[in-house]
Amino acid sequence: EKSSSGPTVSVEPSIFPSSATSSPTSSSNPTGSSRKKGLIISLQVESQNAVDHFNGSVSWFYNYKHTPVDWQGTWADDNDVEFVPMIPGPWLWNESGKGKKCFFDERRSPLCMIK
Description:
- This protein is mainly beta.
- It contains one helix and eight strands, in the order βββββαβββ.
- It starts with a strand and ends in a 12-residue tail after the last strand.
């Protein structure tokens, strides 16, 4: 989809059922409040204006990174939305992304410590 200011990025909530026997809700309204609704914010989303309409309807988000970037942390704090880091393996990257900072495997060093 294109607009005069460039491409528009579609952002949709992700809903995970509480169990395998759960059935989806009949409502198609994404603004209902639930602790299970999350938001995947693509790195192509450059402004919080693209996600403001999810305020009050999601409780968590992730962005394919270990930390929120740019405006995401402030938006999450202002709207009581939890950031969930993506951890693709048994390690965390340095903030620069150019080296592994720590490992979750006790046989490797340095070991990641949760504070």
